[in-house]
UniProtKB/TrEMBL annotation:
This is DedA family protein. The chain crosses the membrane at residues 12-31, 51-73, 99-123, 165-186. Belongs to the DedA family. Keywords: Membrane, Transmembrane, Transmembrane helix. Pfam families: VTT_dom (PF09335). It comes from Cytobacillus stercorigallinarum.
């Protein structure tokens, strides 16, 4: 499986920005290959365009999130069952019920499978504007952060991202959740 993903990555890299756009779109709705696997080597190979690549990746990912939402709205749960184990779906539903649309932001920024959240947002009939807003913020933060690291660290960005990115995104997710809970608490106290 790993070899197949590597060959697919190499093949998509040959298509440059078109491959990056496709993977970014598909990752948000149905595809198992994260766009970081193309964004990082493309950014390293052409660092003066790394922020353009981050924009393109974010844009395509948000368009893919809209498509994932539409899949969830029209076809729904059977599609999720084709793509993921029931245990994963139940875990995401739990996050969705607990955090609401904030779950979209967290999944957009972290290594969680974003496509489950976009499809589930359609199943849950979350407003499309909400999906677009939180997907844009989360995916933009993730891909621009990677672009920033590539721009600042060059080749050293790869080991840094491999070693620390997942942990950093989890800390950011915890910070977002704490901020959200604190804001909700303050709002409720002021009523």
């Amino acid at each position: 499986m790993q070899e197949t993903l590597h060959l697919l990555k190499e093949w998509l890299l040959e298509y440059g920005v078109f491959g990056l756009f496709f993977v970014s779109f598909a990752d948000s709705s149905f595809f198992p290959l994260p766009p970081d696997l193309l964004l990082i080597p493309m950014g390293l190979a052409n660092s003066e365009h790394v922020y353009w690549y981050a924009f393109l990746t974010t844009f395509a990912s948000v368009v893919g999130a809209i498509f994932g939402w539409y899949i969830g709205l029209r076809i729904g749960r059977p599609v999720l069952r084709l793509l993921f184990k029931e245990q994963q779906i139940m875990k995401v539903e739990h996050y969705f019920q607990k955090l609401g649309p904030l779950a979209i932001l967290i999944s957009a920024f972290t290594p969680l499978p974003f496509k489950i959240f976009t499809i589930l947002s359609g199943i849950s009939k979350v407003k499309i504007q909400t999906v677009v807003l939180w997907a844009t913020i989360g995916r933009g933060a993730r891909f621009y952060f990677e672009a920033f690291l590539i721009h600042q660290l060059g080749d050293k960005a790869v080991p840094f991202i491999k070693e620390h990115f997942s942990v950093l995104t989890i800390y950011m997710a915890i910070l977002i959740i704490i901020s959200f809970i604190t804001t909700q608490y303050i709002k409720n106290r002021l009523k």
